[in-house]
Write a structure and sequence with these properties.
The complex is a heterodimer of chains A (422) and B (295). Chain A has 422 residues and is an alpha/beta fold. Chain A has helices at 6-29, 52-69, 89-102, 117-126, 155-168, 182-185, 188-197, 216-225, 236-249, 264-274, 276-282, 295-304, 313-332, 337-349, 360-368, 409-417, and strands at 37-43, 78-84, 106-110, 131-132, 148-149, 173-179, 201-208, 229-233, 255-257, 283-288, 355-357, 373-375, 394-397, 403-407. The termini of chain B are far apart. The chains are: A alpha/beta (422), B mainly alpha (295).
């Protein structure tokens, strides 16, 4: 066996180093041929909105499982990773920077939520990564962010839905009891406008400071104003303390909550504080309407493996978000976000000759056959406007999760266009 | 006027919870000079222990007693195992603050790992409301006020009429001189952590009796008014902390009644800042502020 001389070693060392460096750069700078593609669930996994993150992961993982079962995307598996924003912009910005700098093959983001959207949407957009935000903030109704998509209704739409439900039940004197955080407060302006348009009157508008040991003074003020109904959104602990003290000081009133109040932690906290029977008797929450049956829903329900998230419209929207990203990559034959992102709107909107598909398997098959597709997923049809926003009808849900009524998209649109009464 | 009087009543409940927590916090700081910012997290741990106890079938009053004792012992062990080694290595005031913040995070996230991030509620006995003029209290809230008054009396007796109380005050005033006078400052410090920890545990349970539902961050969120009450009263001054708690608790609720409740925290903290401008050492200030951490 010959031993290489120093000169011979050097002759091999240089090209090897160059080759290894190129490989390393290729791994850093683009998508390697088989490495998994990552979709990040960028949301609170801790803090007061810690329930948001698992909701996203449920939908994301369900979709990723089905995508991978159908062969993945252009030879890649898809994985979901969790990025905890702690529900705080100060924590979320460094978390976004780290995610964007260190996540290999990041092809999409599900999030951010209202807690951190204002601070992080520009950061994610600047990195050319498509995001499916679950914020309802009206600030994004007409945003110019190219990579921003929203398939849940904006908060201003939510305000109309709450007001319409109250009007349908003949309430004319209402109290607004919302947390003073940006997420909750973004619901309030359109709620006030919409209820007034319907002839109603707000007798009190309370902004609750979260995390207090008592809200008895606020409760006393509310009772003095004598409302018939309470519109609400606040974090679980604040709401639990407030409604518990309302029960102690006076009487429980009908409560109409936003979709946030339909989260498990909110119902658990408030139900624990005022009693499950009281909650069921007095509470209804309004949430974006999701399909309850059909091919997309049955596939989703089997994949999500969870009774909690099986009918959760947010998890369904998150499931659809990942499918849209995957379809867009297939349609563009590229995993580069700047190349596939424009396909997202086309696939959601369909167009002449497009084949309507409800599952990833069917869509991948159609695209492979050279057809164009129109994806109608678990959350129902998506119709993006020019600012990449899509919204629909709302459903009223009781504390046990039963749908007890609907507010149609047509009614919401009509109210938005109506002039105030009185 | 009705709302103003009612607000004062509501403020007394808040002040009672604050007083128990702030006196425990400031008592320990006065003797050891460690600003224990893990105090809120330990309150939360006690609340979860109370939840486990009440879920197992024991009543809330048994839970209060058990949590007090457990928290007291836990704080002694925390000091012995974590804080004291740092102090012996010469870690200064600011270094110790970072250590206590670290402990706080470890406790909070350990609770979250064990219990998850969901909310829980204690099983509490149903009580009726009692009216005192415009003031309204539930039976549990009257119990909270009574517990606070009893705890304050016990602290007063301990500090004024027992050898341990005198030793605590001596150690707080000058640990080196106290040691040279034959006081076993190590033992005094252990007992101070025990008393402070017991009050911390008690505060954690009465807090969640009042807020009804809680999660792993509840105690931490309550830490700021606790520290504010302690500072207003004069750092290290148990009697000052009692008065500070009443001022912060009542002013918060009265501000909510008179102004927009959104600003209730702000109003009470404006009072705090304004007062400290006039009297930087707080309401009761006897102990020199430039002490070193006591080992």
């Amino acid at each position: 066996m010959s031993i290489p001389t120093r000169r011979a070693s050097a002759r091999w060392t240089t090209p090897l180093t160059v080759a290894l460096t190129c490989l390393g750069l290729a791994a850093c700078g683009g998508t390697s041929t088989t490495s998994p593609l990552t979709v990040a669930a960028f949301n609170p996994f801790s803090g007061v909105d810690a329930a948001f993150g698992p909701e996203i992961m449920a939908g994301c993982n369900a979709a990723a499982t089905l995508v991978n079962r159908s062969g993945g995307v252009i030879g890649h598996k898809v994985v979901c990773s969790s990025v905890d924003t702690r529900g705080d912009a100060a924590d979320a910005v460094p978390a976004a920077d780290k995610m964007l700098a260190t996540t290999t093959n990041l092809v999409g983001v599900i999030g951010p939520s209202s807690d951190e959207a204002q601070a992080t949407v520009p950061v994610i957009n600047a990195s050319n990564v498509p995001m499916f935000a679950d914020t309802g903030e009206a600030a994004f109704d007409k945003s110019s962010y190219r990579y921003f998509y929203r398939i849940i209704p904006a908060d201003d739409v939510k305000g109309y839905a709450l007001a319409l439900w109250a009007h349908e039940h003949h309430y004319t004197r209402a109290a607004a009891v919302f947390g003073n955080d940006i997420g909750a407060q973004s619901d309030v302006p359109t709620l006030l406008t919409a209820f007034k348009k319907l002839g109603g009157k707000f007798v009190i508008n309370e902004k609750l400071v979260p995390g207090q040991s008592s809200y008895r003074t606020e409760v006393e003020q509310l009772l003095s104003a004598n409302p018939q109904v309470i519109f609400t959104e606040a974090d679980p602990q604040t709401s639990a303390t407030f409604f518990s003290e309302l029960r102690q000081l006076g009487r429980l009133l009908p409560i109409i909550g936003t979709d946030t109040t339909l989260e498990g932690p909110w119902k658990k906290a408030v139900g624990g504080a005022i009693g499950a029977a009281n909650l069921n008797q007095h509470f209804v929450g309004m949430q974006p309407s999701a399909l309850t049956s059909g091919p997309a829903v049955s596939v989703y329900t089997k994949a999500v493996h969870s009774s909690t998230y099986g009918t959760d419209p947010y998890s369904m929207a998150d499931y659809d978000s990942l499918n849209l990203i995957a379809f867009a990559m297939l349609a563009a034959h590229s995993t580069h976000p700047s190349k596939f992102s424009p396909q997202i709107v086309r696939i959601a909107s369909g167009g002449p000759g497009a084949v309507t598909v409800h599952t990833f398997a069917a869509g991948a098959h159609a695209l492979a056959s050279g057809k164009t597709i129109h994806y109608v997923g678990a959350a129902g049809p998506i119709a993006f406007d020019q600012w990449h926003n899509s919204s629909g009808a709302f459903e009223a849900v009781d504390s046990k999760g039963n749908v007890i009524g609907m507010v149609s998209a047509a009614d919401i649109a009509a109210l938005k266009g109506a002039s105030p009464t009185g | 006027m009705h709302l103003l009087v009612a607000s004062i009543g509501f403020g007394l409940v808040t002040a009672s919870i604050l007083a128990i927590a702030a006196v425990g916090f400031t008592l320990q700081f006065g003797v050891t000079n460690i600003l224990n910012l893990a105090y809120g997290a330990i309150m939360t741990a006690s609340a979860f222990l109370a939840y486990a106890i009440t879920t197992s079938g024991l009543g809330i009053w048994a839970a209060l007693a058990i949590c007090s004792v457990a928290s007291g012992i836990g704080c002694v062990l925390l000091n012995r195992a974590i804080y004291t080694p740092y102090v012996r290595r010469g870690t200064g005031l600011f270094g110790m603050i970072i250590v206590t913040i670290s402990v706080s995070l470890v406790v909070e996230f350990t609770l979250q790992a064990i219990h998850g991030s969901s909310f829980v509620s204690l099983s509490l006995p149903a009580t009726r409301s009692y009216h005192f003029g415009a003031m309204v209290f539930t039976g549990l809230q009257l119990a909270i006020i009574a517990i606070a008054v009893l705890a304050m009396l016990c602290v007063h007796v301990l500090l004024r009429y027992t050898k341990l109380g005198k030793a605590m005050r001596a150690t707080a005033a000058d640990p080196v001189l106290a040691r040279s006078c034959g006081i076993s400052t190590g033992r005094v410090i252990d007992l101070t952590w025990l008393v402070s920890g017991a009050m911390c545990g008690l505060a954690g349970v009465v807090l969640v009796i009042n807020v009804t539902s809680f999660d792993t961050s509840t105690g931490g969120e309550f830490l700021i008014p606790i520290v504010a009450a302690a500072i207003l009263g004069g750092v290290g001054q148990p009697y000052g902390a009692m008065l500070g708690a009443v001022i912060i608790g009542v002013s918060t609720e009265v501000a909510a009644g008179l102004f927009d409740p959104t600003y209730k925290d702000m109003v009470s903290f404006v009072i705090l800042v304004g007062f400290l401008l006039l009297r930087p050492q707080g309401l009761f200030a006897e102990i020199a502020t430039q002490k070193e951490v006591v080992a």
